[in-house]
């Protein structure tokens, strides 16, 4: 039997292009969340600025997040433009803990203007955290049934995503999460941008949330930047806390 896993989905206020300021904000969220895993939205380190330079895993600006994760005993899943093979750029998810950062996943399904700036990732990815297998996704990936199916085929307990949706499309993450949960019998956690994010998104949806395997939402943040939703994932049953604004 796996031990329970405390997970948080966060939607911090982001400053476009300012990686150092955003890293400090991410670190503060990690320290306040009280969670083993903290998930952040798509491109959370830069805002949704498609021309933002790629961030290397050893970028010194990430040090506050590394230190925050070390102090909290946490893993942060952070959105960033990242490098790929042969100079290609990707929309990525960095896995950051107290030992450093690495690129854990590259977004496979691109939308809108993204193909003009990024290449798609080539394969699904899973992280093992304390015996919990977390399948990784970024935004449009969650709307592609094949992506969830291919990720679930790797053997997962939860499907974890960073997302950006406009306020008028606030229902989209919930619709996708319920489908994935019910189709594959897994927990789903989505961190969704709130407030202005750049790239023409002046009013992002927020509403980051966690769903259990029957599709029922167990914890959901509000629509404002700074809100966090948390839940304790259990192999059987659930103990959850509602959305809240972290202190500090």
Furnish the topology, listing elements before pairings.
Layout: E1 5-10, H1 19-33, E2 37-39, H2 63-72, E3 75-83, E4 89-97, E5 100-106, E6 126-129, E7 132-138, H3 145-152, E8 158-163, H4 172-184, E9 187-192, E10 194-195, E11 204-205, E12 209-211, E13 217-220, E14 228-233, E15 238-244
Parallel strand pairs: 1-2, 2-3, 7-8, 8-9
Antiparallel strand pairs: 1-14, 3-4, 4-5, 6-7, 9-12, 10-11, 12-13, 14-15
Helix pairs in contact: 1-2
CATH topology: Nitrilase/N-carbamoyl-D-aminoacid amidohydrolase
| Class by SSE composition | alpha/beta
Number of helices: 4
- Ranges with pLDDT <50 over ≥5 residues? 238-248
Mean pLDDT: 93
Strand content: 25-35%
* CATH superfamily label: Carbon-nitrogen hydrolase
The helical percent reads 10-25%
Count of distinct strands: 15
> What does the overall shape look like?
globular
CATH class: Alpha Beta
Largest sheet: 7 strands, mixed
> What is the total number of structural domains?
1
Report on the structure:
The chain has 248 residues and is of the alpha/beta class. It has one domain: 4-Layer Sandwich (Nitrilase/N-carbamoyl-D-aminoacid amidohydrolase). The strands form 3 sheets. A 7-stranded mixed sheet has the order 5-4-3-2-1-14-15. Strands 6-7-8-9-12-13 form a 6-stranded mixed sheet, covered by helices on one side. It has a two-stranded antiparallel sheet with strand order 10-11. Strand 2, helix 2 and strand 3 form a beta-alpha-beta unit. Helix 1 runs parallel beside helix 2. The longest helix has 15 residues. The termini are far apart.
